[in-house]
Amino acid sequence: MLGKGTWLVVGALVLAWMVLSGPSAPSGALDAGSAPAKPTRKAVPNRVMTWNLCNPCETGNDDRAAEIATYAPQVVGLQEACVGDVEKIRDYLENLHGLVYHVEYGPVLKSWGRCGGAPWNPGGYGEAILSAAPMTDVVAREYPDGGSEDRGYMEVTTTVGGRKVRLLNTHLAERRQEAVRAEQVGVLAAEVARYDRAIVIGDFNAVPYASELAPMWKLAADADPECHPSRSGPCEPTTDWQSKFDYVFLRDVAPLSQHVRPTAVSDHHLVYADLSLTARP
After folding, report:
1. What region does 28 belong to: left with phi over 0, alpha with psi -120 to 50, or beta?
2. For 11-37, what is the mean pLDDT?
3. Which pTM was predicted?
Protein backbone atom coordinates (compact mmCIF):
# COMPACT_ATOMS: atom_id res chain seq x y z
CA MET A 1 0.00 0.00 0.00
CA LEU A 2 1.31 3.43 -0.91
CA GLY A 3 1.77 5.93 1.87
CA LYS A 4 0.07 9.30 2.01
CA GLY A 5 3.24 11.10 0.96
CA THR A 6 3.61 8.85 -2.08
CA TRP A 7 0.04 9.59 -3.20
CA LEU A 8 0.70 13.31 -2.88
CA VAL A 9 3.71 12.99 -5.17
CA VAL A 10 1.71 10.95 -7.70
CA GLY A 11 -1.12 13.47 -7.63
CA ALA A 12 1.28 16.34 -8.24
CA LEU A 13 2.82 14.53 -11.19
CA VAL A 14 -0.59 13.86 -12.74
CA LEU A 15 -1.60 17.51 -12.30
CA ALA A 16 1.63 18.69 -13.91
CA TRP A 17 1.05 16.35 -16.87
CA MET A 18 -2.49 17.72 -17.36
CA VAL A 19 -1.23 21.32 -17.33
CA LEU A 20 1.54 20.60 -19.84
CA SER A 21 -0.59 18.56 -22.21
CA GLY A 22 -3.61 20.86 -22.04
CA PRO A 23 -7.28 19.91 -22.13
CA SER A 24 -8.77 17.98 -24.97
CA ALA A 25 -9.92 20.46 -27.61
CA PRO A 26 -13.58 20.27 -28.63
CA SER A 27 -14.41 19.74 -32.28
CA GLY A 28 -13.64 22.91 -34.32
CA ALA A 29 -11.50 24.55 -31.60
CA LEU A 30 -8.19 26.22 -32.47
CA ASP A 31 -5.26 23.79 -32.41
CA ALA A 32 -2.65 24.46 -29.74
CA GLY A 33 -0.09 25.25 -32.46
CA SER A 34 -2.34 27.50 -34.57
CA ALA A 35 -1.69 31.25 -34.68
CA PRO A 36 -4.64 33.64 -34.59
CA ALA A 37 -5.48 35.29 -37.89
CA LYS A 38 -3.85 38.68 -38.40
CA PRO A 39 -6.31 41.58 -38.27
CA THR A 40 -6.86 43.25 -41.61
CA ARG A 41 -8.03 46.71 -42.65
CA LYS A 42 -9.51 47.87 -45.90
CA ALA A 43 -7.92 50.74 -47.78
CA VAL A 44 -10.05 53.77 -48.59
CA PRO A 45 -11.24 52.64 -52.04
CA ASN A 46 -11.26 56.03 -53.80
CA ARG A 47 -8.09 57.48 -52.25
CA VAL A 48 -4.77 57.93 -54.09
CA MET A 49 -1.54 59.23 -52.60
CA THR A 50 1.82 60.46 -53.86
CA TRP A 51 4.92 60.64 -51.68
CA ASN A 52 8.60 61.27 -52.29
CA LEU A 53 10.27 59.17 -49.60
CA CYS A 54 13.46 61.29 -49.41
CA ASN A 55 16.58 59.33 -50.24
CA PRO A 56 19.10 59.22 -48.76
CA CYS A 57 17.44 60.05 -45.43
CA GLU A 58 17.81 58.54 -41.98
CA THR A 59 14.28 57.15 -41.86
CA GLY A 60 12.96 53.80 -40.70
CA ASN A 61 10.69 51.90 -43.05
CA ASP A 62 8.38 51.15 -40.12
CA ASP A 63 7.90 54.91 -39.73
CA ARG A 64 7.22 55.28 -43.46
CA ALA A 65 4.66 52.49 -43.29
CA ALA A 66 2.98 54.12 -40.30
CA GLU A 67 2.61 57.39 -42.21
CA ILE A 68 0.97 55.62 -45.16
CA ALA A 69 -1.26 53.55 -42.88
CA THR A 70 -2.60 56.69 -41.21
CA TYR A 71 -4.46 57.53 -44.43
CA ALA A 72 -4.79 53.99 -45.88
CA PRO A 73 -4.90 54.93 -49.58
CA GLN A 74 -6.14 52.53 -52.22
CA VAL A 75 -3.07 53.43 -54.29
CA VAL A 76 0.17 55.14 -53.31
CA GLY A 77 2.89 56.18 -55.75
CA LEU A 78 6.37 56.46 -54.25
CA GLN A 79 9.39 58.30 -55.60
CA GLU A 80 13.06 58.03 -54.59
CA ALA A 81 12.19 54.47 -53.63
CA CYS A 82 14.59 51.57 -53.18
CA VAL A 83 13.18 48.16 -53.99
CA GLY A 84 14.36 46.76 -50.66
CA ASP A 85 12.79 49.61 -48.72
CA VAL A 86 9.46 49.23 -50.50
CA GLU A 87 9.42 45.51 -49.75
CA LYS A 88 9.88 46.28 -46.06
CA ILE A 89 7.23 49.04 -46.15
CA ARG A 90 4.76 46.61 -47.71
CA ASP A 91 5.53 44.00 -45.05
CA TYR A 92 5.12 46.53 -42.22
CA LEU A 93 1.83 47.73 -43.70
CA GLU A 94 0.50 44.18 -43.63
CA ASN A 95 2.02 42.88 -40.41
CA LEU A 96 1.69 46.00 -38.24
CA HIS A 97 -1.30 47.77 -39.78
CA GLY A 98 -3.37 45.07 -41.46
CA LEU A 99 -3.20 46.72 -44.89
CA VAL A 100 -2.40 44.38 -47.77
CA TYR A 101 -0.94 45.85 -50.96
CA HIS A 102 0.26 44.60 -54.31
CA VAL A 103 3.48 46.29 -55.48
CA GLU A 104 5.11 47.11 -58.81
CA TYR A 105 8.49 48.75 -59.36
CA GLY A 106 9.90 51.20 -61.86
CA PRO A 107 13.63 51.35 -61.05
CA VAL A 108 15.67 53.70 -63.22
CA LEU A 109 19.12 52.90 -61.84
CA LYS A 110 21.08 50.61 -59.56
CA SER A 111 22.51 52.50 -56.62
CA TRP A 112 24.64 50.93 -53.89
CA GLY A 113 25.09 54.33 -52.24
CA ARG A 114 21.35 54.97 -52.03
CA CYS A 115 19.89 51.49 -51.76
CA GLY A 116 22.61 49.26 -50.35
CA GLY A 117 23.03 45.70 -51.48
CA ALA A 118 26.27 44.12 -52.61
CA PRO A 119 28.59 46.38 -54.62
CA TRP A 120 28.25 43.97 -57.56
CA ASN A 121 24.46 43.78 -57.11
CA PRO A 122 23.19 47.15 -55.84
CA GLY A 123 19.56 47.85 -55.07
CA GLY A 124 17.09 49.22 -57.60
CA TYR A 125 16.10 52.89 -57.21
CA GLY A 126 13.24 54.83 -58.80
CA GLU A 127 9.46 54.70 -58.53
CA ALA A 128 7.05 52.18 -57.04
CA ILE A 129 3.28 51.78 -56.86
CA LEU A 130 1.43 50.02 -54.05
CA SER A 131 -2.19 49.17 -54.79
CA ALA A 132 -4.82 47.42 -52.71
CA ALA A 133 -6.21 45.98 -55.95
CA PRO A 134 -4.19 43.94 -58.45
CA MET A 135 -2.31 45.83 -61.17
CA THR A 136 -2.06 44.87 -64.82
CA ASP A 137 -0.38 46.14 -68.01
CA VAL A 138 2.64 47.41 -66.10
CA VAL A 139 4.97 49.74 -67.99
CA ALA A 140 8.21 51.26 -66.66
CA ARG A 141 10.31 53.60 -68.79
CA GLU A 142 13.24 55.94 -68.38
CA TYR A 143 13.17 59.39 -69.90
CA PRO A 144 15.66 59.84 -72.77
CA ASP A 145 17.42 62.51 -70.70
CA GLY A 146 17.17 62.27 -66.92
CA GLY A 147 19.23 65.34 -66.20
CA SER A 148 21.72 65.04 -63.36
CA GLU A 149 20.25 61.66 -62.40
CA ASP A 150 18.29 59.02 -64.30
CA ARG A 151 14.54 59.64 -64.06
CA GLY A 152 11.47 57.92 -65.45
CA TYR A 153 7.82 57.04 -65.11
CA MET A 154 5.77 53.92 -64.61
CA GLU A 155 2.13 53.16 -65.26
CA VAL A 156 -0.39 50.48 -64.38
CA THR A 157 -4.06 49.71 -64.76
CA THR A 158 -5.73 49.24 -61.39
CA THR A 159 -8.97 49.87 -59.54
CA VAL A 160 -9.83 53.16 -57.81
CA GLY A 161 -13.30 53.89 -56.50
CA GLY A 162 -14.56 50.64 -57.97
CA ARG A 163 -13.52 51.57 -61.53
CA LYS A 164 -10.58 50.58 -63.70
CA VAL A 165 -8.24 53.47 -64.41
CA ARG A 166 -4.77 54.06 -65.89
CA LEU A 167 -2.44 55.41 -63.23
CA LEU A 168 0.98 56.93 -63.92
CA ASN A 169 3.69 57.74 -61.39
CA THR A 170 6.71 59.90 -62.22
CA HIS A 171 9.70 61.78 -60.87
CA LEU A 172 11.07 64.60 -63.03
CA ALA A 173 14.56 66.09 -63.15
CA GLU A 174 15.90 68.05 -60.23
CA ARG A 175 15.39 71.75 -59.66
CA ARG A 176 17.09 74.27 -61.94
CA GLN A 177 16.87 71.83 -64.87
CA GLU A 178 13.86 73.37 -66.57
CA ALA A 179 14.84 72.43 -70.12
CA VAL A 180 15.28 68.77 -69.18
CA ARG A 181 11.95 68.72 -67.39
CA ALA A 182 10.26 70.28 -70.41
CA GLU A 183 11.43 67.35 -72.56
CA GLN A 184 10.33 64.87 -69.90
CA VAL A 185 6.86 66.43 -69.62
CA GLY A 186 6.54 66.19 -73.40
CA VAL A 187 7.18 62.44 -73.22
CA LEU A 188 4.83 62.00 -70.27
CA ALA A 189 2.03 64.12 -71.74
CA ALA A 190 2.12 62.15 -74.99
CA GLU A 191 1.61 58.97 -72.97
CA VAL A 192 -1.18 60.45 -70.84
CA ALA A 193 -2.99 61.67 -73.96
CA ARG A 194 -3.44 58.04 -75.06
CA TYR A 195 -6.00 57.50 -72.29
CA ASP A 196 -9.44 59.01 -71.98
CA ARG A 197 -9.27 58.56 -68.22
CA ALA A 198 -6.06 58.71 -66.20
CA ILE A 199 -4.55 59.70 -62.86
CA VAL A 200 -1.00 61.07 -62.91
CA ILE A 201 0.88 61.38 -59.64
CA GLY A 202 4.42 62.19 -58.68
CA ASP A 203 7.16 64.65 -57.87
CA PHE A 204 7.40 67.06 -60.81
CA ASN A 205 10.09 69.27 -59.21
CA ALA A 206 8.31 72.33 -60.61
CA VAL A 207 5.84 74.87 -59.25
CA PRO A 208 2.39 75.07 -60.90
CA TYR A 209 3.16 78.13 -63.03
CA ALA A 210 6.43 76.70 -64.40
CA SER A 211 6.33 76.78 -68.19
CA GLU A 212 7.47 73.17 -68.53
CA LEU A 213 4.24 71.95 -66.90
CA ALA A 214 1.99 73.59 -69.51
CA PRO A 215 1.44 70.35 -71.51
CA MET A 216 0.18 68.60 -68.38
CA TRP A 217 -2.23 71.41 -67.52
CA LYS A 218 -3.71 71.14 -71.02
CA LEU A 219 -4.53 67.48 -70.43
CA ALA A 220 -5.45 67.31 -66.76
CA ALA A 221 -6.46 69.31 -63.69
CA ASP A 222 -5.05 69.30 -60.19
CA ALA A 223 -7.00 67.34 -57.59
CA ASP A 224 -7.20 70.60 -55.66
CA PRO A 225 -9.83 72.54 -57.68
CA GLU A 226 -8.38 75.84 -56.43
CA CYS A 227 -4.90 75.12 -57.76
CA HIS A 228 -4.17 76.45 -61.25
CA PRO A 229 -1.02 77.33 -63.26
CA SER A 230 -0.93 80.86 -61.90
CA ARG A 231 1.57 82.68 -59.71
CA SER A 232 -1.30 83.95 -57.58
CA GLY A 233 -3.09 80.60 -57.33
CA PRO A 234 -3.69 79.23 -53.81
CA CYS A 235 -1.77 75.98 -54.36
CA GLU A 236 -0.77 74.43 -51.06
CA PRO A 237 2.99 73.78 -50.67
CA THR A 238 4.03 70.13 -50.61
CA THR A 239 7.67 70.42 -49.50
CA ASP A 240 9.62 71.61 -46.48
CA TRP A 241 10.90 74.54 -48.56
CA GLN A 242 7.30 75.70 -49.13
CA SER A 243 7.02 74.86 -52.83
CA LYS A 244 4.36 72.76 -54.54
CA PHE A 245 6.25 70.04 -56.39
CA ASP A 246 3.97 67.04 -55.80
CA TYR A 247 0.80 66.57 -57.83
CA VAL A 248 -2.29 64.45 -58.30
CA PHE A 249 -3.30 65.29 -61.88
CA LEU A 250 -6.74 64.07 -63.02
CA ARG A 251 -7.91 63.40 -66.56
CA ASP A 252 -11.68 62.80 -66.76
CA VAL A 253 -11.73 62.03 -63.03
CA ALA A 254 -13.60 64.24 -60.55
CA PRO A 255 -11.92 65.34 -57.30
CA LEU A 256 -13.79 65.22 -54.02
CA SER A 257 -11.02 66.59 -51.80
CA GLN A 258 -7.24 66.87 -51.62
CA HIS A 259 -5.10 66.95 -48.49
CA VAL A 260 -1.45 67.80 -47.84
CA ARG A 261 0.08 66.38 -44.67
CA PRO A 262 3.59 67.36 -43.52
CA THR A 263 5.63 64.52 -42.09
CA ALA A 264 8.77 64.30 -40.01
CA VAL A 265 10.18 61.41 -42.05
CA SER A 266 10.58 63.14 -45.43
CA ASP A 267 11.26 66.57 -46.89
CA HIS A 268 8.16 66.08 -49.07
CA HIS A 269 4.68 66.08 -47.59
CA LEU A 270 2.15 63.31 -48.08
CA VAL A 271 -0.39 64.36 -50.71
CA TYR A 272 -3.59 62.39 -51.08
CA ALA A 273 -6.89 62.91 -52.86
CA ASP A 274 -10.30 61.34 -52.60
CA LEU A 275 -11.84 60.95 -56.05
CA SER A 276 -15.05 60.12 -57.86
CA LEU A 277 -14.73 58.04 -60.98
CA THR A 278 -18.46 58.16 -61.64
CA ALA A 279 -19.07 61.91 -61.49
CA ARG A 280 -17.98 64.15 -64.35
CA PRO A 281 -15.17 66.61 -63.52
Report:
1. left
2. 47
3. 0.86
